Every structure is written in C-alpha cells, then in structure tokens.
Amino acid sequence: MKNLLILEDHPTSAMVVEEIITAVVPGLTTRVVESVEQLQQIEPADVDLVVSDLVLPNSKPAEVIDMVSQRFSSSLRIFFTALGDAKIERQVADSGALLLSKSQHYKELMVQVQSFLKRDSVNLNSISQRNEFQSLIQMPGSPKPLTIKQAQVMEQVSLGRTGKEIAKILGMSPDTVNAHIKEAFGRLGVQNRGEAVSNYSVARKLAARLHGEAALAHLQPNAD
Q1: pLDDT tens profile 112-130
Q2: Which of 88, 117, 203, 221 is deepest in the core (most CB within 10 A)?
Q3: Is residue 224 part of a domain?
Q4: What whole-number distance in Å separates Cα of residue 1 and Cα of residue 74?
Q5: Any domain includes 80
C-alpha cells in the first residue's frame, strides 16, 4: 500500500484522518481533495486507500458512498461521519467499506482502522505492557518503545538543547546522553538528530492522543 486519498472539505479533519492512517501504515503518499468534482479527476489505479467524509458540499451521503465505491472498487475504502443513520451504516457495510464515527475516541478509531487494514503498527496496550523502565513513546512499527531515560533525553533534544545541557539537566555524563541518543535513533528508525526529532514528535503526539498528556509525566527530568 503506497497511496492514500482523503476526501474531506475541512482541513483540520483531513489532518486527523491522515495522522491516524499514516500511523497505522507509515510511509504513505497522501493526497487530499475537497469535493466529489475533484475526486472525479483522480485516476483510480493510483489509489490504494480512500478515506472519505460522508457530508460534502452538493452531495448526499448515499451518493458519496455509491460514487466512491464504484469509482474506487479496487481500493480499500473507509467512510467517516457524525451521522447516526442505520440506513447509511448498512449501505457502507454492504459496500465492503469501514464506517468510522467522528464521535469515537481516538484510540477506538485506531483499533478499528488497524483491524480493517490488518495492521498492528501501533501498540494500543502500551500502558499495561510497559515495565518500570519503558516509556510510552513508541514509533509506529517499531518493536520497542523508548526507555524512560531515552525519552527524557529525546524530549530535551526536541527542545534544541545540546548534549552538555541535557547532561546537566538530567544529571548524566555527556557520554551517557550520547549513548541514549544513539540507542533512541535505532528505536525511532532514524540516522540523525533532525530525523530523530521529527519521528520523536510523531511518536510523542501519538502517545498523548492514545493515553493523554498525564500519561507522559515520565518525560520530566525528575521522573523515575
């Protein structure tokens, strides 16, 4: 799977959809269109997954389902809506697509998307599975989360601090800080600091979405 197409006329909703899907399937190329008219200009063969809102300008939900299902019959399809309409739910189910509700919690959406796409890139049970040394920061697809110390170091790196500054803040030697950074690179799947900060930010945001900011207290310098 390489190409994701999102049909959504609200940029904020499109961003959340992209965040969820690309966490489950990293590395997708994403294109966003805002109307059925724009969608009709897309070549179906270039799309592996379509994610579409059901409430769009000048289009009824049933029409959106039919059009997307017919035009992208060879693609995986996910629809999302705030509507609570049993008839629409049946139509989506009959089309072989997944229906997501905008009223669901982020974690519930992740569970459904991972199940539908048959992926388990995101560890949804990380709180119950972590030991006393593990953080909740885990890059999608990575077999291991960052340790608490690695996460604390990367938190400081993401704030632009140098190795010496981080050593002083966390009460470590500079060599220990560098060792944590090197190990964190491997768990984040990166080669340099710029990539590490980018992936760490993605993983941190995902952890906050799934578990709440309070669950990230272990990132603070005085955490055990």
Answers
A1: 999 999 999 999 988 888 8
A2: 203
A3: no
A4: 12
A5: yes
